[in-house]
Structure formats: structure tokens, C-alpha cells
Design goal:
Largest sheet of chain A: none
Shape of chain A: elongated
Radius of gyration of chain B: 20 Å
Shape of chain B: globular
Largest interface: A-B, 33 and 36 residues
Number of helices of chain A: 2
Structural class of chain B: mainly alpha
Helix content of chain B: over 70%
Number of strands of chain B: 0
Distance between the termini of chain B: 47 Å
Helix content of chain A: over 70%
Number of strands of chain A: 0
Number of domains of chain B: 1
Largest sheet of chain B: none
Number of helices of chain B: 17
Distance between the termini of chain A: 19 Å
Oligomer: heterodimer
Structural class of chain A: mainly alpha
Number of domains of chain A: 1
Chain lengths: 60, 345
């Protein structure tokens, strides 16, 4: 598979994975509220977990 | 409708296979480099070594915009897939008024049922276009929905109540601008030309894709939308972070009390900070005493419609000339509303 194909097919998933890991890491260390309004911390964590689930299902 | 939209495009305008994806590949590469850059700096810089203030601010601001936007983009992608695969056509088309003006007005208030912020509305609007909603109608939805949604309205009320008519002018201004812009683009001879050739091709692929298990198809579409949206989002967030560091906020604040300059200054701030429409009222509340009410209204109307991150996301779908026109018209109309509020008060 060419490098361009890898980028085209995997860039979204790779970036989403980085975002999901960063979000869960920030939430686990209690620092998510430094980046996100406290009102949306729960939504942010729920969507991170759901995105992780979709990423797993997507590549199966 | 999708067929008409795609077939109306002359063959000569279509890109060669593979050629259309080059900008996307570059964007993806750029986004991955940005993320790698941020990651390497964060990991390799020991805690006791202070990064330069500007670099630290750039990293923090970029990550902040990204982490804040990501869940809404994911909600938007999910809703887009649902609209494309599970919403019956009769719900989409037969329930909407046939008269264009009324149809756009109805689409403006669709945000009441789909409460996501502006970044989530981009994939959703793409899904609507793929399903056959007209391009001007989708633009109207795109501009109105972030403002005319219950979360934004409630948060604005919590921040400002009914003082100075800020909530009223935000809702009314958002509705009027979205519909005026939709009407303006509906005058275009070939509205499909407002879309990028690549997105037009993806509409065609959607309309010709064969029967397949809908859940499998949903996952495939989710992946494709992620590939289109996330590189643009990351690049947009990095640019927003960079400009926030580069542009002096002190300069913006010194313009605050002038009835004309305050409006333009807060519109500029809204463009630069790229904050979600669901929380922007609380952000600007802290500046409320420094700026005129018209400027606050302009911030709350312009920000959800146009900002750096939104332009990066919209570029996946619309041509550059469309976005220049869109930004110019929305900015002009917002400035008029902001100035009118200042004059009235």
C-alpha cells in the first residue's frame, strides 16, 4: 500500500485515536477541565469512549 | 436529487481519479505533522524546563480548541450517518415546505432538534447534501443551527438573561443572516458548483453504492467522514492557536468602547478563538463590561457561523471562492446588526 493510500485511509482514525487517548488521559488525571468547559466534561468523555468503540468496530 | 446534483457537473470540471485527493492527502499529512510536533514537544520537554510562553500558549490553545471540538464533530458525523442511512426520504423531503423561502426557514430551526455546535454541523450538512438537500438550503442550516439550538439559547440566557436584548438579537440575527445568505446562494445559476469536485464525486459514489448491510455501511461512512473532517479540524485548531498567540489581545481590548471598532474587534476575536457556540456566551460574558452590547451580539452571531476552524472544516466541502463570499457576506451582515444594536441602545 502506498504512503498516500495509508494517509488517505488511516489519517482520520489515527487522529481520532490520538484525540480519544488524550481526552481519556486528561480526564483520568483530572485535567480535562483545564481544556473543556466543566459543563461538557461528561459529554467529552462519553464521546471519547464511543469513538474508541467505533474505531475498534470499524477496523474489524 | 443527488443524481441531478452530480450529473449537472460537466465532465471537464471533474478531477482526474486520484488528483482530487491530493489536497486531502496534504491536509492529512499536515495534520499528522502538527500532532506529532505537539506530541514530541510535550513528551520530550521535561517538566522543569519551561517552554517559551508563546510556544506553550500555542500548544495549550491548539489542544484546547481540538479537545473541545472533537466530541461535537463525532456527534455530527454520527448524526450525518444516521441521516444518510436511517432517516426515511419522506421525512427529509415531504415534510419540508416546497417553497424555497419556507423550506430554508424550516431548515434553520432544525437545530432545535439537533443540538450540536457548529463543528458538528459540518458533517451533518454534508450528509444532508448527499441525501439531496439543495446546497443553499444546506448552507442556511449550517449557519442557523449552531445559534438556533436549545443549548446555545439556554446558555446565552444563563449568561446574559434578557439584558440589552443580546439573546433576542443573537437568535433573530442568526436566523435572518442564515436565510439571507441561503437566498443569496440560491440565486446562483449552478449551486452545485459551490461544492468542491471531490465532494461532488463522493455524492455520486453514495448514490451509486449498492445494497449492503446498513451497519457495515454506517461504519464505512463514519470512517470516510473521519478521514475528511479530522485532518481539517486539526489544521484549523493549530491555525487558531497560532493566530491567538500572534494577535495581541490587548489591541482588541483597547478598541472595546468605540461603537464601531468594538464590533469589528469582537468579530475578529470570534474568528480567531474559534470557540464552540455552546460555551461562547460564558466566554464573552467576561468581556461584557469592556465592550459595547452590539459588539457582544456581533461576537455571538459571527463566531458560530464563521471562524478559522470552521473555514478549515468547510473547505472539505465548499470551494475557496464560495467560502470567501460566504465569509464576506456573513461578516458584513453581522457588522450591520452589531452597529444597529449599538445605535439603538
Amino acid at each position: 500500500m502506498r504512503f498516500e493510500d495509508v494517509l488517505r485511509n488511516w489519517s482520520g482514525a489515527a487522529l481520532a485515536l490520538v484525540g480519544v487517548i488524550a481526552t481519556i488521559w486528561l480526564a483520568a488525571t483530572g485535567r480535562l477541565t483545564l481544556y473543556v468547559h466543566p459543563r461538557y466534561t461528561l459529554l467529552t468523555v462519553i464521546m471519547a469512549v464511543l469513538t474508541l468503540l467505533v474505531l475498534v468496530l470499524w477496523r474489524r | 436529487m443527488t443524481e441531478r446534483l452530480v450529473d449537472a457537473q460537466p465532465t471537464s470540471h471533474r478531477p482526474e481519479p486520484g488528483a482530487a485527493s491530493v489536497p486531502n492527502v496534504r491536509r492529512a499529512l499536515g495534520a499528522l505533522l502538527v500532532v506529532a510536533f505537539l506530541f514530541v514537544i510535550r513528551v520530550t520537554a521535561p517538566g522543569e524546563i519551561a517552554l517559551g510562553d508563546a510556544l506553550q500558549d500555542f500548544i495549550t490553545l491548539s489542544i484546547s480548541v481540538l479537545i473541545e471540538s472533537l466530541p461535537f464533530v463525532m456527534v455530527g458525523i454520527g448524526l450525518s450517518v444516521v441521516v444518510q442511512l436511517w432517516v426515511p426520504e419522506r421525512v427529509l423531503f415531504r415534510m419540508l415546505p416546497r417553497t424555497p423561502v419556507l423550506r430554508r426557514a424550516a431548515l434553520s430551526v432544525l437545530g432545535v432538534m439537533l443540538p450540536v455546535c457548529e463543528c458538528g454541523n459540518v458533517p451533518l450538512a454534508r450528509g444532508l447534501v448527499v441525501r439531496g438537500i439543495g446546497v443553499p438550503d444546506a448552507i442556511t442550516f449550517l449557519l442557523a443551527a449552531p445559534i438556533l439550538n436549545p443549548i446555545t439559547i439556554v446558555v446565552t440566557y444563563q449568561a446574559f438573561g434578557f439584558s440589552d436584548g443580546i439573546l433576542f438579537w443573537r437568535v433573530l440575527g442568526g436566523f435572518l443572516i442564515a436565510n439571507l445568505v441561503g437566498w443569496l446562494f440560491s440565486r446562483h445559476n449552478r449551486p452545485e458548483d459551490l461544492l468542491t469536485p471531490r465532494f461532488q464525486d463522493s455524492c455520486k459514489v453514495h448514490s451509486h453504492s449498492g445494497e449492503q448491510d446498513r451497519h457495515v455501511k454506517a461504519l464505512r461512512m463514519f470512517g470516510a467522514e473521519m478521514n475528511a473532517m479530522l485532518p481539517a479540524l486539526v489544521v484549523g485548531c493549530a491555525v487558531a492557536g497560532f493566530i491567538q498567540v500572534a494577535v495581541s489581545r490587548d489591541l482588541l481590548l483597547t478598541l472595546g468602547q468605540n461603537p464601531v471598532w468594538s464590533v469589528l474587534a469582537l468579530m475578529g476575536l470570534a474568528f480567531v478563538i474559534a470557540i464552540c457556540s455552546t460555551v461562547d456566551a460564558f466566554f464573552v460574558l467576561s468581556l461584557g463590561s469592556l465592550f459595547t452590547p452590539g459588539a457582544v451580539v456581533a461576537f455571538l452571531v459571527f463566531g458560530p457561523m464563521i471562524d478559522i476552524k470552521m473555514l478549515a472544516l468547510l473547505r472539505t466541502t465548499f470551494t475557496a471562492s464560495t467560502l470567501v463570499l460566504l465569509t464576506t457576506v456573513v461578516a458584513s451582515l453581522t457588522a450591520v446588526i452589531g452597529l444597529a444594536v449599538n445605535v439603538a441602545l
